[in-house]
Amino acid sequence: MAAPWEDVLRDEAAIQEAASVAVDAALLEGVLMRTEREPNASDVVNYAPFTLLPSAVPSTLFEQAYAVQQDFNLLVDAISQNKEFLEHTLASTIKVDDFTAQLFRIHMQVLEEGLAQSVFLGINRSDYMFDCGVDGTPALKQIEINTIAASFGGLTSRTAAVHGRVLKVLGKSEEASRLLPNNPSKGLALGIAKAWELYGSQSAVVMFLVEEVQRNIFDQRCVENELWNRNIRVIRKRFRDVFEKGSLDDAKRLYIDGQEVAVVYYREGYVPKNYDQQNWEARLLLERSRAVKCPDIATQLAGTKKVQQELSRPGTLERLLPGRTEAIARIRATFAGLYSLDMGEEGDKIAATAIADPDRFVLKPQREGGGNNLYGEELRQVLEKIRDSPERTSYILMDKIKPQPAMNYLLRAHSPLQVSECISELGIFGVYVRQDKEMVMNKAAGHLLRTKAIEHADGGVAAGVAVLDSPYLV
Ligand code: ADP
Ligand code: MG
Ligand code: MG
């Protein structure tokens, strides 16, 4: 899996020069982030962290990840429409996890009232690592699927140009020409535009629901720009704005500041800290509305770790996707071992196994955004403490994926340049639009490669651990 630039990795002068070119290229291309000190101002910005060099990715696994994306889109959509499955799967979790319980309550309330929404838009990102099996052959294993606020589709549309420049500077023009084109922001925008069109009101806007702290605004602006280019008006609002100025009319059309909203694109609302009482009320208002929510609350629930674990049970995929034998086989081939910690014999047994051999597993709560999982000694301690308590059902266990590391330089503002042993995670963006029962769009919209030093077990780009990368197919 070695990349064809191992020879330059230790040429310090060449690397230094390439790094300074890389940083300027990133700024020029718009691989940008607001700073930690001024997260809501664009007066001073910096480059988003990225690898100096692209990372080698086996082409067969890359193609496999693309090939299964439409299947995952169908699966997520099917789960979101399956009330009984969500209810049954999340029953134990919502008894102990307040956040999931609150989402679930809104889901049930909206269903009882009757869905006003008839157009559905899903934007997800299925993430994978390349597991090195016993014989050393890498296999594609899904880490998770993100069904809400999956980010970096914008910035990653601009990283290949940066890596292309770096390779040229290093005398690798031939390799530079082999870097893949990639534009998830366009694909995401096409989905949003389709949903907007089907909503059917020329004067209605697309609302990006954004967090109070908006360091990653440029990633979102990439998608916004694509919409403006199509003459679709975009507004950016926070939950607080919705609480203060949002309302529904008799037909449950959503208005904010007097503007009708056709599509609500959530870049917010995926972790407990996004919510106070008013924000929960705002969320409920949005969910009750006719506007296309991306995602609707059922689709957010379909992306929980508990659902992921339940999907790996024999027979579950068959029930959710009846008759789709080939899609099921493609999906299942990407599953790592996943284990329920529900109370009972099965949960007791796997808890004991994980306590005895924690390095085989990852312990995952129902959280997003990186930095929440437990590994090794910490996993053992926590699991030991909760092994006989229902609290354990707020977690799932997963086999730990062990990829083959590769050397690279991680470029981060204000950090010294040093070579690190790294592992990568590949994400594929999925976009789909459904009108009532009919799928009108189902696509893979591009990819994201993120890379981190092996000493960090967890964490994404936003969490400050991983950095943006580009795949170099080998
Ligand atoms: P989140 O929703 O917080 O992103 P993830 O399931 O993606 O949760 O886990 C966060 C990070 O932890 C991943 O990006 C990956 O680096 C690491 N990780 C998660 N699951 C595994 C696993 N099974 N094996 C190895 N690393 C994992
Ligand atoms: Mg996630
Ligand atoms: Mg993740």
From TrEMBL:
Residues bound to ATP are 144, 305, 364-373, 375, 398-401, 425, 452, 458
Which pathway or pathways does this protein act in? Sulfur metabolism; glutathione biosynthesis; glutathione from L-cysteine and L-glutamate: step 2/2
Taxonomic lineage is: Eukaryota, Metazoa, Chordata, Craniata, Vertebrata
Please give the name of this protein: Glutathione synthetase
What are the names of the required cofactors? Mg(2+)
What are the binding positions for Mg(2+) in this chain? E144, N146, E368
Q: Any idea what job this protein has?
A: Catalyzes the production of glutathione from gamma-glutamylcysteine and glycine in an ATP-dependent manner. Glutathione (gamma-glutamylcysteinylglycine, GSH) is the most abundant intracellular thiol in living aerobic cells and is required for numerous processes including the protection of cells against oxidative damage, amino acid transport, the detoxification of foreign compounds, the maintenance of protein sulfhydryl groups in a reduced state and acts as a cofactor for a number of enzymes. Participates in ophthalmate biosynthesis in hepatocytes.
- Cofactor descriptive note: Binds 1 Mg(2+) ion per subunit.
Q: How does it assemble?
A: Homodimer.
Which family does the entry's similarity section mention?
A: Belongs to the eukaryotic GSH synthase family.
Query: Which Gene3D superfamilies has this protein been placed in?
Result: 3.30.1490.50, 3.30.1490.80, ATP-grasp fold, B domain, Glutathione synthase, substrate-binding domain superfamily, eukaryotic, Glutathione Synthetase, Chain A, domain 3
CDD domains for this protein: eu-GS (cd00228)
Q: Which residues bind substrate?
A: 125, 148-151, 214-216, 220, 267-270, 450, 461-462
- Alphabetical UniProt keywords: ATP-binding, Glutathione biosynthesis, Ligase, Magnesium, Metal-binding, Nucleotide-binding
Output the PANTHER family linked to this UniProt entry: GLUTATHIONE SYNTHETASE
Q: Which Pfam families match?
A: GSH_synth_ATP, GSH_synthase
Gene Ontology molecular function? ATP binding; glutathione binding; glutathione synthase activity; magnesium ion binding
Give the organism the record lists. Accipiter nisus
